[in-house]
Write a structure and sequence with these properties.
Blueprint: H1 11-31, H2 38-45, H3 49-56, H4 59-71, H5 83-99, H6 101-112, H7 118-140, H8 148-165, H9 172-187
Helix pairs in contact: 1-2, 2-3, 4-6, 4-7, 5-7, 5-8, 5-9, 7-8, 8-9
Amino acid sequence: MRPKATARPGGRSARVQQSVHDAVRQLLEEVGRDGLTVPLIATRAGVTPSTVYRRWGDLQELLSDVAVEHLRPEGPPTDHGSLRADLEAYAEQFLEEMASDSGRAYIRDALLGDAEGPNAGQCSAYAAHQIETILGRAAERGERTPDLEQVMDRVVAPIMYRILFRPDLLSADYSRALVSGALQDATA
């Protein structure tokens, strides 16, 4: 597998990446995943198919790249005034977004086109950064907090497991129970 080129913050490379990502998202809506081809995407993006192949390698790697970009949080988690409220809101929102049909499709794409693992690591880093923000705010308020890995292991990981393997057992009550368990462990 060839290493994926990294885009500069501006310039032609960034414009190409943006136009190709936009084309993928538009075409997913119009023709669905089964109708996507590199030539179709390239035509919509205004680039040659060789540009897409050179940058992403194949369609699955491109879909993985688009998925990781889509899964990036739009901003920091909302501050609800307490660690419990912040974690519960985060867990419920995470569950709702990732368990949706489009969320599960993006998760699959992020993992399928990622034989080396950096996209999965990036998705994990997004979640970890959100949890670090919540824990940092709680610590500033003087609240006792669990460590990051405890929350990742006790809240994020079980939600992801259920999203991938047991989606019929997902609920807001489940996410709140995970948060309660993580907080109980932190104070024990």
